Amino acid sequence: MAEQAPIVALVDDLLLASRVEANCRALGWPVVFPRGTETFWTLLRERRPALVLVGMSATRLPWETLVSEMKRDPTLRDVPVVAFGSHMDLALRQRAREAGCDRVVANSQIATEFASLLAQVGLGAAAGGQPK
Questions:
Q1: pTM
Q2: Angle, alpha carbons 67-72-78 (nearest 5°)
Q3: Domains of the chain with bracketed CATH
Q4: Can you list the pairs that 114-118 forms with residues at least 24 positions away whose Cβ atoms lie under 8 Å?
Q5: C-alpha to C-alpha distance for 75 and 80, rounded to whole angstroms
Q6: 5-26: pLDDT as tens digits
């Protein structure tokens, strides 16, 4: 049996990371938090994630560059990317769209509408997970 594709999360904020992890696990999705750009590219090429989540407040990794390069790669461009951040920072939300994010949502939606967000990008509960 093939290993399930993970959700890759570019998230620095510990509170948001814990919410992302809890939501992914509740729905049966493995989640990986890469700590460097090499790890990010290795995950994308070797494990082909089901989704990339981007916390727009992340500073450890250059998420705008990574998303832009990913979306230019013909072998990766169809991996959905959902960015989340402050609903008040309209300039940052625009930068996420320009980088190539497929959806840009408020932080609160990660906490309260996670299953719905996954469905909007063509994912549901993974094997063993339960939609909330």
A1: 0.88
A2: 75
A3: 7-120 (3.40.50.2300)
A4: 114/23, 114/27, 115/23, 115/27, 117/82, 118/27, 118/29, 118/51
A5: 12
A6: 999 999 988 988 999 999 999 9
